[in-house]
Amino acid sequence: MKTVILALVALSFALPSTASDRKAYPNARQSYPFVVKIRDFYGAEGFGFDYYLDTSRLVVVLWDDLGSPRKEILSKSLTKAEAREWASYLERLPMGQLKDAYVNSGADDGLLQTFTFKSGGREKTVDVRNIRVEELEKLCRKLNLLIPDKHLRLRVSDG
């Protein structure tokens, strides 16, 4: 039920109810510069968010698998302090210890996230399917602190 409500709220950003409610979200580019990109896909609902964090900005893009244009629903500049904090955090993140995939084969739908990291000219992608990974949960919680609207935040466990 919580997921259905979230889906309706997210789609309401892209499909305002009246002309006076219409908030003009620009069409999103195909990609943005990033040091971390997270794709959070709500499979059963058919939509998702892409989070692009680079050295100076966070961009959140809403998309669906129904053919609607991708919409840039949040673009937030990082303060110098936030940028330094993120650079330090990502430098300490044990990317080399992360597996390429974490999968709970007992579930077909649910938490579907893909993390892509760029560092030192290298790129690493980690797929997460219906399982919680502590280091990635910490990263999501930290990123969520930059996102003022709780409906746009990454999914994390309640604990």
Taken as a percent bin, the fraction of beta residues is 25-35%
Q: Output the helix-strand order.
A: HEEEEHEEEH
Strand order, biggest sheet? Answer: 4-3-2-1-6-7-5
Indicate the mean pLDDT.
84
Describe this structure in words.
There is one protein chain. This protein has helices at residues 2-14, 80-92, 134-144; strands spanning 36-42, 47-53, 57-64, 71-77, 101-103, 112-119, 122-129. With 159 residues, the protein is of the alpha+beta class. The chain is globular, with a radius of gyration of 16 Å. The two termini are 19 Å apart.
Supply database-style keywords:
23% helix; 159 residues; alpha+beta; 3 helices
Topology:
Blueprint (H helix, E strand, L loop, with lengths): L1 H13 L21 E7 L4 E7 L3 E8 L6 E7 L2 H13 L8 E3 L8 E8 L2 E8 L4 H11 L15
Give the structure's gist in a few sentences.
The protein has 159 residues and is of the alpha+beta class. It has helices spanning 2-14, 80-92, 134-144; strands spanning 36-42, 47-53, 57-64, 71-77, 101-103, 112-119, 122-129.
